[in-house]
Amino acid sequence: MTDNNNTSITLAVREVSPEVAVISIGGEVDMLTAPELREAVDRAIDSCRALVLDLNAVTFLGSAGLAVLVETSHEANRRGVPLRLVASSRTVCRPLEVTGLTEVLSTYGSLDEAVAAAV
Amino acid sequence: MTDNNNTSITLAVREVSPEVAVISIGGEVDMLTAPELREAVDRAIDSCRALVLDLNAVTFLGSAGLAVLVETSHEANRRGVPLRLVASSRTVCRPLEVTGLTEVLSTYGSLDEAVAAAV
Amino acid sequence: MSGTGPDVTTSHPRIEVTVSENQSSPEIEVRIAARPDHLSVLRAVAADLAMRADFDLDAISDLKMAVDEACATLISRANSPEDQLVCGFAVEADQIHFTAHAPTSSPAAPSRESFGWRVLSSLTDSANTWVAPGDDGVPVLRVDLVKKRLGSVGQ
Amino acid sequence: MSGTGPDVTTSHPRIEVTVSENQSSPEIEVRIAARPDHLSVLRAVAADLAMRADFDLDAISDLKMAVDEACATLISRANSPEDQLVCGFAVEADQIHFTAHAPTSSPAAPSRESFGWRVLSSLTDSANTWVAPGDDGVPVLRVDLVKKRLGSVGQ
Ligand SMILES: Nc1ncnc2c1ncn2[C@@H]1O[C@H](COP(=O)(O)OP(=O)(O)O)[C@@H](O)[C@H]1O
Ligand SMILES: Nc1ncnc2c1ncn2[C@@H]1O[C@H](COP(=O)(O)OP(=O)(O)O)[C@@H](O)[C@H]1O
């Protein structure tokens, strides 16, 4: 995580149980910051058995961010790594619903539920 | 209070004990909305023994709003009506401090304290 | 839908759009260098206007997303980050009308089949984009969006 | 204070200010009709920029208030609500530089002794205002503010 949390997104990566990685994402995920998210996710997916993306502190989710989620989902499928999203705020749920992605991605209301499902 | 609370401020006037009026103010108090506040305050001060202005839901306080507070304070002094402000958010305290008005106006951290002091 | 504003749901620009572009400047015009780090200020403007126009939270979110998407497209197709992106916001009776343009390096408008454009269309009540030569003959990409306060989108 | 930006603490405009006004447009320019209902959008822009430039919460609040005060003055001294108020925001190394101008009905600049101007000066690291004839000879009121990320204000 960086001090500079206004000019970019914040990314906190941790392992909640063996090989279950949780990335907590904060801030605005747009054209500017999506590559940073992409990189963190690509790194995590290389070394975990299950991946949880906690989107609850995301304050904007644009199509560049949605594309990262879709591509991560494809990559996770290829590798057989379960991918779970934590999404409960309107800010995050609205873009997922409008684009029909709630049908495709596994979303949970809380981190606990997502982690339980991922294990 | 009005439905239209985005294009203007919200003003809720009530009597918490006999002749102690509380005006709870919400939204942005600027050049556009200060006259509305002024009017509500003038009306209340005509028929109360003590006046509390709860500023905690104010999201912007510009100099037009500060001027209303200063003029209300003068008017309240003239009439011998105690005036108490509820101000605890940074959004409200910062402008009061920067302009030195915390020295002149009686501010309280909570509505309960302000009402207790006003009675 | 009362529809007092321009209706630009067709895929080719109609007279109303051109008129609206050329008439006395929109109420609010924002000019920025065509750089991704300025997107957030455009979202902030869109959100503030929609909030004050009494849009509900979903409609505010939709407009922010649509403006972001439109401007991200304009920025990614500009010639250089020094190009100027010009955005106009007009708050009309029952809708917000957003227009934007920037010089472009591609003579063709963005595909309407792309993910980004499909999202943008689904978020607004009307969306249009086209390329036209600018004053100096350089191609200019334009986007025109209408978001109604009580639209048919996602209801 | 390192002070790489223009220093306009004197009460008369200095060369730097004029240069900065005339040089290639500021990064972000916002043009609105000179009406009080547009003040909130300017505050939203100021807040977004200051936040992204890592200003602390007090400094963000100060900049919002200073921009609001400057523009309220320009609006109240404009000839009509149809006049255009033009605001420029430049995010520089350690400060935000704000400029604004609008046609004015009063040939004299606002008094520096007024409550509004005293507040504005106390909120910024540098504040200046003056009237100069515009392109068409009509008097134009200008305001120029500098707010440093780590200023001496209210610390
Ligand atoms: N239904 C969808 N939901 C979310 N993202 C999608 C969807 N379809 C495509 N994408 C993502 O959007 C990106 C662009 O898709 P595409 O349809 O080729 O449009 P474009 O022309 O904008 O690139 C791709 O990286 C893809 O992962
Ligand atoms: N120290 C102060 N704090 C808050 N408001 C003040 C203060 N001094 C003056 N005002 C208010 O600001 C308004 C304008 O004051 P003034 O100094 O005459 O400036 P202006 O020339 O802007 O009218 C007055 O209505 C007054 O109530």
TrEMBL record, chains A, B:
Give all residue intervals belonging to the STAS domain. Answer: 10-118
Superkingdom as given in the UniProt entry? Bacteria
- Signal peptide region: none
Pfam family membership, one = STAS
PROSITE patterns in UniProt: STAS
What family is it from? Belongs to the anti-sigma-factor antagonist family.
Q: What is this protein called?
A: Anti-sigma factor antagonist
Biological source species: Kutzneria viridogrisea
Automatic annotation (TrEMBL), chains C, D:
* Region of interest called Disordered, as start-end residue ranges on this chain: 1-24
Q: Which domain of life is it from?
A: Bacteria
Tell me which species this is from: Kutzneria albida DSM 43870
Compositional bias of kind Polar residues? 1-12
One Pfam entry for this protein is: HATPase_c_2
Q: Where is the Histidine kinase/HSP90-like ATPase domain?
A: 32-100
**Name listed for the protein in its UniProt record:** Histidine kinase/HSP90-like ATPase domain-containing protein
